[in-house]
Write a structure and sequence with these properties.
661 residues; 25 helices; five-stranded mixed beta sheet
């Protein structure tokens, strides 16, 4: 066992038995490199990463490769999900040097942390050759190696702040232009944007739904609805157990990269719920609920949080857990139902995946729902007997914050109080274990908080989740904690020009302080912070928080015309900014059915970014409720913008009219 045996990261623990003398990222590791006068070899990945497993089996478990690594380098393993700051700065270097990125990421650097050679996955023969060549260059051409590292660091640190300039969010004309920009890369035949591989464009879809809600633009709804339908009918969606895989390797959503991530499913469950809220489509409702149920069934931890991911591999083979052949279907279901399932789920003798197996798809709605559910249940039960993929059971604050929002809203919209209760349980875990004095730790595992400090997305996404949960439950404590976290964002993460760095001012200093306002697999920290700041301002009337939100959305102005796919969360925030957002106060006794009816109507509001607060008359709550009371003893709803309210109404029909206006 190497030094990783005491790590808390499941990814690092996967490497604890390697013959490589791994170190965790630490000052001690770099001090050891200086003592031995050797370079540092940094390897970055994550537990559910298929190619990380491949490189581990080929190289890190191989004795000769390990001997070279141990002799020539100090080798450091990093879980990118625990340390997104390390991943960000060295991925920037990797992309600058090679023109591409990905995981596993392999970086050779000086003991000062200056990268001088970068790459991603290397097959074992090539990797061994590279190790020898880098070791020789370090010995024979030290000045050149040092100089290259210094040049790379100088070039990266001298770059202008990302997308600086401007202080206003996109206006309505730019938002309309962003829809046209998305249409330019839209795949009208298969849904989604661009070609293979296709990732779920969750943030862009949220923007399109909000834009349609504000403007009734049919093009925005068509692109969003077609894409949402195609993703959920294809192989990227688990047709038996629910939940989405990370991405589709093809342009038609047929074959996924099978890892399942919490953040994708949290984002998508919420988007499907919002699609249902706009259209009433029962398919959208089913997918939202199945995705929530999958998160709770397969990712819930004993402490009430949600684990990070499920692996792509089972028994060392990618996708084995999920794929089927016609013979396997017949063995489980018999000849008649086996043939029915093969036809329904597009399972063919030729197969759509490897070795004649097929990924299940559901391209048409089954006519016989009773038979469909019976067959589906039998296949799911049979699949449960297979060896399941490994689970990365660390709890990441940001992704759990996204899940709180999704579970709370789906629970409220679809009358599933168990989902709301689960959201409250996740929020309680974050409050009790991750949050202290307005600060966050990024991860926990088995009920113990990790050592890594929270980054901007942690503060932003947890705040977003807490504010969404408040809209559903009325619990003012969620607003208070979100306010404390957002105050830390304003105090510790600001760049002095209205934007935000991804790390706090007292976080570990790397060779460059990461700052990237563009969306990636998750909403950018800056755009997520802007959205949470805007919601908090709407609930509290805080002008400084609203102004900070507007300035933080400014980079979306520069991205809207040509790079809208990478600014979806910022554009969605700008839609809320342009819409007010609406502030809906419901004043009435919690047990009163009239209060519940008004609250339900308020939560059905499609106005972008609308916030809701509900509370008993005179109860201590949030400022939106202050000074507003019942009408003639009846519960009342107030629809406001900027804390300026229209006349109160006392019926759901009256509230619906107010919201429509």
């Amino acid at each position: 066992m190497n030094r990783l045996k005491d790590a808390t990261s499941p990814y690092l623990l996967q490497h604890a038995g390697n013959p490589v003398d791994w170190w965790e990222w630490s000052d001690a590791a770099f001090a050891e490199a200086r003592r031995r006068d050797v370079p540092v070899l940094l390897s970055v990945g994550y537990a559910a990463c298929h190619w990380c497993h491949v490189m581990a089996h080929e190289s890190f478990e191989d004795g000769e490769t390990a001997r070279l690594m141990n002799e020539l380098f100090v080798s450091v393993k990093v879980d990118r999900e625990e340390r997104p700051d390390i991943d960000a700065v060295y991925m920037e270097a990797t992309q600058a040097m090679t023109g591409q990125g990905g995981w596993p990421m392999t970086v050779f650097m000086t003991p000062d942390g200056h990268p001088f050679y970068c790459g991603t996955y290397f097959p074992r023969p090539q990797f061994q050759t590279l190790l020898r060549a880098v070791g020789k260059a370090w010995t024979d051409q030290r000045d050149e190696v040092d100089g290259q590292g210094q040049q790379i660091v100088a070039a990266l640190t001298s770059r202008a702040p990302a997308l600086s300039g401007g202080s206003e969010p996109p206006g309505v004309d730019l938002l309309a232009g962003a829809v046209k920009a998305l249409a330019g890369s839209y795949d009208a035949a298969r849904g989604g944007f661009g070609g293979a591989p296709k990732f779920p464009p969750s943030m862009a879809l949220e923007f399109l739904l909000r834009h349609h809600a504000r403007t009734q633009d049919p093009e925005a709804l068509t692109m969003a609805g077609h894409t949402l339908g195609a993703m959920a009918r294809g192989g990227m969606y688990d047709q038996l157990g629910g939940g989405f895989a990370r991405y589709s390797v093809d342009a038609s959503w047929v074959v996924p990269h099978f890892e399942k991530m919490l953040y994708d499913n949290a984002l998508l469950a919420r988007v499907y719920a919002h699609w249902w809220r706009l259209t009433g489509d029962p398919f959208a409702r089913r997918i939202a609920l199945e995705t929530c149920d999958w998160m709770l069934r397969d990712l819930r931890t004993p402490q009430g949080g949600l684990a990070s991911a499920l692996d792509a591999d089972s028994e060392g083979v990618e996708g084995r857990y999920y794929v089927w052949t016609p013979e396997e279907l017949r063995n489980v279901l018999g000849e008649e139902d086996g043939a029915y399932a093969a036809s329904l789920f597009e399972v063919t003798d030729a197969g759509t995946f490897e070795h004649g197996s097929s990924v299940l798809q559901l391209l048409r709605d089954p006519e016989d729902l009773e038979r469909y559910e019976r067959v589906r249940g039998a296949l799911l039960a049979s699949r449960a007997e297979r060896v399941p993929p490994a689970r990365d059971d660390k709890v990441v604050a940001a992704w759990n914050g996204l899940a709180v929002a999704a579970l709370a809203e789906c629970g409220a919209l679809f009358d599933r109080p168990d989902l709301v209760a689960a959201a409250e349980e996740v929020a309680a875990l974050i409050a009790d274990l991750h949050a202290h004095g307005g600060r966050l730790v990024r991860t926990s595992r088995d009920g113990s908080a990790g050592a890594n400090t929270g980054v901007l997305e942690d503060y932003a996404d947890v705040s977003e989740g807490l504010l969404a949960l408040h809209s559903v439950t009325g619990d003012a404590e969620h607003v208070h904690l979100a306010g404390a976290l957002l105050d830390t964002v304003l105090e510790r993460f600001g760049d002095g020009a209205g934007g935000f760095y991804d790390t706090a001012d007292d976080a570990e200093r790397l060779f460059r302080r990461p700052q990237d306002p563009t969306d990636n697999a998750t909403p950018s920290g800056q755009f997520a912070a802007a959205g949470a700041l805007l919601s908090y301002a709407a609930l509290t009337g805080s002008i400084p928080h609203r102004e900070a939100a507007g300035t933080a959305l400014a980079p979306a102005t520069l991205l809207a015309a040509e790079h809208a796919r990478f600014a979806g969360w910022g554009l969605a925030g700008a839609e809320a900014y342009a819409s007010g957002p609406l502030e809906i106060a419901i004043v009435g006794e919690p047990g009163d059915e009239r209060t519940r009816a008004l609250h339900r109507t308020a939560l059905m509001a499609v106005s972008p970014g609308a916030v809701v607060s509900v509370g008993a008359p005179g109860a201590a709550g949030v400022p939106l409720l202050d000074g507003r009371g019942p009408v003639d003893g009846a519960p009342a709803a107030y629809v406001c913008r900027g804390f300026t309210c229209r006349l109160p109404v006392t019926t759901p029909a009256g509230l619906t009219r107010e919201l429509a206006e």
